[in-house]
């Protein structure tokens, strides 16, 4: 990758639309700058930084686990470390993810429809899904899809 070839990193954005329905859209992070993380380390592509208090945890969903409909407790990045999991939004979109795929959950403020509010998620297959969850302490005013692009 040359200095002119900025990377793009895909992620799924689970968000609430203006009608209170959760939806998922495929987005790409594109704002990268090539610089050293800490000199004298060699330069690498770094994405835009977000400063906020954070809560970081690892959660393990047992094999065949399935949660009920709920909203994310806070805007949060979800990064699968092992296993596979899914997220189903109120619009019927079901996204399945494994290691190396990223989701940003931001479906706060949905309105219940047909027994659905927020999203449903669960484990796929016979092994646990190990997920790293990075929650923002402060909700954002701007919650438009692909806002990290």
From TrEMBL:
Q: Which InterPro entries does the entry link to?
A: RmlC-like_jellyroll, RmlC_Cupin_sf
Question: Where does the source fall among the domains of life?
Answer: Bacteria
UniProt-listed SUPFAM superfamilies: RmlC-like cupins
Region labeled Disordered — which residues? 94-127
Name of the molecule in the record: Cupin domain-containing protein
Q: Which organism is it from?
A: Jiella mangrovi
């Amino acid at each position: 990758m040359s200095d002119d070839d900025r990377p793009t990193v895909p992620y799924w954005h689970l968000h609430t639309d203006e009608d209170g329905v959760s939806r998922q859209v495929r987005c790409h992070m594109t704002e990268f700058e090539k610089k050293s993380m800490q000199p004298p380390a060699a330069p690498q592509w770094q994405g835009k930084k977000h400063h906020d208090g954070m809560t970081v945890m690892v959660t393990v969903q047992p094999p065949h686990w399935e949660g009920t409909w709920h909203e994310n407790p806070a805007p949060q990045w979800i990064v699968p470390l092992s296993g596979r999991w899914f997220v189903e939004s109120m619009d019927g979109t079901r996204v399945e993810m494994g290691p190396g795929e990223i989701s940003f959950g931001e479906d706060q403020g949905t309105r219940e429809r047909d027994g659905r509010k927020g999203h449903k998620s669960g484990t796929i297959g016979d092994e646990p899904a190990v997920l790293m969850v990075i929650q923002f302490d402060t909700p954002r005013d701007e919650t438009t899809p692909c806002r990290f692009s």
